[in-house]
Specification:
Belongs to the aldose epimerase family. It is built from three helices and 30 strands. It is mainly beta. The strands form eight sheets. A nine-stranded antiparallel sheet has the order 11-12-13-14-30-24-23-18-21. Strands 17-28-25-22-19-20 form a six-stranded antiparallel sheet. The chain has a five-stranded antiparallel sheet with strand order 1-2-3-4-5, with no helix packed on it. The protein starts with a strand and ends with a strand.
Length: 348
């Protein structure tokens, strides 16, 4: 097991460091203390060849403002909140409207743009980077002095990345965090992800309106087969369908799926060409599937031109805008109560 560090540039006068966790099999995860961004995951294909399976850049300058949140931890609230407004314990709060009149991913000064404190930990069986961040009362409009910890953990005997989250606030607040990595199992972005096979153990998805917000309706997937991933399907089947919900979000998926927790769900992603598979287990109640419908642009990932559907996100979290839908699982964190969450990514 090994943890290494190297300088990665400066932002707003802060020195940014890249940390790399490596196990004895060569499996490797690299991340930054800026936004807890995962820049690279090297995982083996069917022949044992190690290649990168997440979208990322080689320089800090390329991340820029990171409008697509590549690899970052997002919060305090992952997803959208209608008009950035909510009420907790009789008090009204107003957040930034940073996405077409709605609040998105914690606002412009959210966790993705923070410089986190990092602590490297090595044991015989694990390599760990522990990131901590203090978010003061009122930051981005959220109540409460919040202390947040995110740990990236690589085990020696498994090609596995575990992400654990913990937090505590001195006021009742909202908290809904996730990692926003874009996966592409073809290796070094050889192909788009439209033919990746995806399985999500979910019987219901959240219908969206034209503002990309949940309408409040949880649709049974058996009534809407293109959203039924329980037995696995490719992204292409939905992308090319012309389904109104898929057209609404730009010709792909950007939808929350409520996980069937009683089934001890495992989300599975597979690329037949490389033989790589990813299995995801989480304590979170939902996952947002985003098929990178809007990331095409005049830039490149390590020499590969950015294009829509070059990666996909599997954002384990609570449902977006949950504070305004009482029948959704809650994202309210009570004062002095500890928040804990874990998501484990296993590559085979």
């Amino acid at each position: 097991m090994a943890v290494t560090e190297q300088a990665f540039g400066q932002i707003n006068g802060h020195n940014i460091t890249r940390y790399t966790l490596t196990n004895d099999k060569g499996f490797q995860v690299s991340c930054l203390d800026y936004g807890c961004i995962i820049t690279e995951i090297l995982a083996p294909d069917h022949a044992g060849k190690l290649e990168n399976v997440v979208l990322g850049f080689d320089t800090l300058e390329e991340y820029g403002s990171n409008p697509h949140y590549f690899g970052a931890v997002v919060g305090r609230f992952a997803g959208r909140i209608q008009e950035g407004a909510f009420t907790i314990e009789g008090t009204d709060y107003q957040l930034a409207k940073n996405s077409d009149g709605q609040h998105l991913h914690g606002g412009p000064g959210g966790f993705h743009s923070a410089v986190w404190k990092a602590n490297m930990i090595e044991t015989e069986s694990e390599s760990i980077i522990e990131f901590t961040h203090f978010s003061p009362d009122g930051e981005e409009g959220f109540p409460g002095n919040l202390t947040m910890t995110v740990c990236y953990i690589v085990k020696n005997d498994d090609n596995q990345l575990a992400i654990s989250y913990s937090a505590k606030s001195d006021k009742t607040t909202l908290l809904n965090v996730t990692n926003h990595s874009y996966f592409n199992l073809s290796g070094d972005f050889k192909r788009a992800i439209v033919d990746h096979q995806l399985t999500i153990p979910s019987s219901q998805y959240a219908e969206l309106n034209e503002d990309m917000l949940p309408t409040g309706k949880l649709v049974p997937v058996e009534e809407d087969p293109l959203f039924d991933f329980r037995d696995g399907r490719t992204i292409r089947e939905g992308k090319d369908s012309g389904h109104p919900q898929i057209k609404l979000v730009g010709g792909g998926y950007d939808h929350p799926f409520l996980l069937d927790k009683e089934a001890q769900p495992v989300i599975k992603l597979k690329d037949e060409g490389s033989g790589r598979s990813l299995q995801i287990e989480t304590t979170e109640p939902a996952v947002v599937l985003y098929t990178a419908n809007h990331i095409g642009g005049p830039y490149a990932f390590k020499g590969v031109t950015a294009q829509n559907q070059l990666g996909l996100c599997l954002e384990t979290q609570s449902l977006p805008d949950s504070v305004n839908h009482p029948h959704f699982p809650t994202s309210i964190l009570n004062a002095e109560k500890e928040f804990k969450s874990q998501t484990v990514y296993s590559f085979t």
